[in-house]
Amino acid sequence: GENVEQHPSTLSVQEGDSAVIKCTYSDSASNYFPWYKQELGKRPQLIIDIRSNVGEKKDQRIAVTLNKTAKHFSLHITETQPEDSAVYFCAASMIGNQFYFGTGTSLTVIP
Amino acid sequence: DADVTQTPRNRITKTGKRIMLECSQTKGHDRMYWYRQDPGLGLRLIYYSFDVKDINKGEISDGYSVSRQAQAKFSLSLESAIPNQTALYFCATSAARGFQETQYFGPGTRLLVL
Lengths: 111, 114
Fold this sequence. Notes:
The complex is a heterodimer of chains A (about 110) and B (about 110). Chain A is mainly β and about 110 residues long. Chain A has strands at about 5, 10-15, 20-25, 30-40, 45-50, 55-60, 60-65, 70-75, 85-90, 100, 105-110.
């Protein structure tokens, strides 16, 4: 099955700086890559996703990039704010099939 | 997302007891999932169901069973609970149509097995 690796496991940045979280996947058939944000004590919620026919997608301060050849994708958060502090999970799947999640990155934004 | 609910929200049980965690959704989604979350291990899939008559094992199904009673209800059972099943359990749902792949999570059930 698919194997998704996520790095780093913890990340601290100063408010206003950028944060980058990276994931790699093993199955070249995967074609859908969502990112979820989980605030402390809350449920995971989708923040952005990308499909394999697209190399980059942006939504305000967050963006995701995908390199199909290298089988890796990344989450970029610019101008970080304290409310960005959370655990972020990447996932990979073939559309219509189960998700395989990474192990999560705990992001702390220091005011 | 209030459309996916889980009961109970917290549960303490003893080793060897049978317990059931329930999930209900009003989103009209066909697909439902059970995950467990452990620190440092992310979200791991226990079972999933793509419709009422379809049940599939995930990567960590041993020690668990499920029942899809209706499109809107998906229950997870621990037949004989053991301490290493202490975890946070999430139910999730998704639509089966087109590219609507987003999974919507319930609020979670925190389970402690003594």
